[in-house]
Structures are given as C-alpha cells and as structure tokens.
Amino acid sequence: MTITPGLALAVLVAAPTPDPSSTETPAPKAHEGRAFHLDVEAETNLPVDVGARITAEFPLRIQLSTSLGGMPGGYVDVINGVVVAAGGYDDATASVIRSALERSLVWRTHAGWRILKRRGLYVQAGYGLVTLGGSATGGDVLAIVTGNPMLSGEGDDVVDLRSTLHMIDAEVGWQFLFVDGHVSLRTALGFAGTVGASTTASVADDASRRPVRQAALEESAAFVEDYLDDLYTRYVFAPVVTVAVGYRFF
To answer: Global pTM?
Structure first.
C-alpha cells in the first residue's frame, strides 16, 4: 500500500495524544534543590556520649554542627574494659576513673561537607570539650599511689575529682531521608582522641582526721591529678560509632 502525504497526516491527527502526567518525572522531595537545611537530631556516639545535635547546611553543601550530651556509665565501662584488657592500667585505676566520671557534660562542634549533591554522604571534623566530675574514696586514691589494690574502696574519706578533656574527632557518615525529606536517619564511623586534660583532686578538711592521714591524702590527691591527666591523654582514644534520628525543618 502506498502511503500518501494525506494518509500520513490523517494518522497523526487520529493518534491519541500522550497523557503528560504519564511521562512526567517524579516530583522532587520538598527539600531538594534548597541551598540551606536545618536538622535537629537525637544521637548516640559510642563510647563518647548520648545527646542532641543541630546541623545547618549552607550553599556548596558546607555543614556546621554542634551537639550537647553526657557520657553514660556504660560507655565509661567500655573504655575501662578495653584499656584494662590491653594492660594500660589496673582495676583499681579503672574504679577511680569510673568514680571520676559520675557526672559528665560533652559539647562537640564540627565543620564538614556533604560530598554528593543528591546523596547523604558527608565528612565532618571538629573539637570536643568534656567536663567530668565525681568522687573516690581515700582508699581508691591510695591504691593508685601505692600500687596496692587491696586498699581500693577502704576508708570514709572522700576525694572530689573534676576533669576537663579537650578532644579532636572526625567522622564519615550517611544521612537517609524519609517522609518527604522530613525524617532523617544518620549513621557514621569516626575517631575521637584526647589532646589535653586538666584534673583537680581535692580533699576536704576534717577536724577528726589525723594530721598524718590528711597530709597523706593531700599528697596522694596531687599525684592522682597528674596521673589521671596522663591516662586521659594516653588512652582515651577510640573509634566512634554514631546512630542518630532527627527531623529536617527545611
């Protein structure tokens, strides 16, 4: 059959018009294409802290974040267990460190970059300030000084311990977005290390305490200050595993 120009035109006119909606690309998520994002998350960074984090992303996918949290006792036990098993210090020292970390506040601030334009891969690095507070018995302190673990836990004397740690850390992670880009799940692997520490150990005056005992405790407390600072900067280095869930406002 010969196809004439008139027949071809008739076929084109009669052919159904494609539905534009059937060929449209999926609508972009609400936050795609924006140059600025703000996320608020609840996170855990094992074995550093559990807390909350705010992250702002600027043009060129540059990120700034800050977080505030605390170091749970279980995380301290993880650090102690690893160091004791590696021969870094003994159980008596681990007991004092555990007591010294009864109260903690961890503040971390990072700068980074989301590497891929339409994916959640990112890198961040920054600084962490850790403040620790607690107490130990005089027996615990004397056990460290004398190297005699039998003294650990003995006596009613209380030595107040306060430490400040300066840390640097870095992480590589991925953020997943759900529910039209509002709900986030973030996972990361990183490393944190202590680069500076300052500890204060103080013994309250007690009129009923013998002067010899008071002098021994004060001397031991001064020794423990330097000893703990050395331990923090030598052994508080650890890989960090992060899991966070949050909400993206825009």
So the answer is: 0.81
